[in-house]
Amino acid sequence: MENWVSVFSTTEEFVAERIKDVLTDSGIPAVVLNQRDSSYKTFGDINVMVNKEDREKAEQVIKAYNDRE
After folding, report:
1. Phi, psi at residue 65, to the nearest 5°?
2. What values do phi and psi take at 32, rounded to 5?
3. Which DSSP string corresponds to 37-55?
4. DSSP structure class, residue 36
5. Which of 19, 21, 29 has the alpha carbon at shortest distance from 63?
6. Across all residues in the chain, what is the average pLDDT?
7. Among 36, 55, 65, 69, which residue is least crowded by beta carbons within 10 Å?
8. How far apart are CA 24 and CA 12, in angstroms?
9. Do β-strands 30-34 and 46-51 pair in parallel, antiparallel, or remain unpaired?
10. Where are any strands of DSSP class E within the chain?
11. CA-CA distances (angstroms) from residue 57 to 2, 27, 28, 50?
């Protein structure tokens, strides 16, 4: 995953999935990387990752989405 970068981080899985869907609907391939501890669920983050080349566009899409909400 060396060509992938995090463009969004949260502790809520449903929020990460929604951001991933928004990016995918905008034509930006995205994946959710869950780094939360499976035993305690209180440590770690859930990151939405995109290809390095899509970073700037993804950040603009996320900002526009957050401004709407």
Report:
1. -65, -45
2. -100, 125
3. -TTTSSSS-EEEEEEGGGH
4. S
5. 19
6. 90
7. 69
8. 19
9. antiparallel
10. 4-10, 30-34, 46-51
11. 19, 10, 8, 10
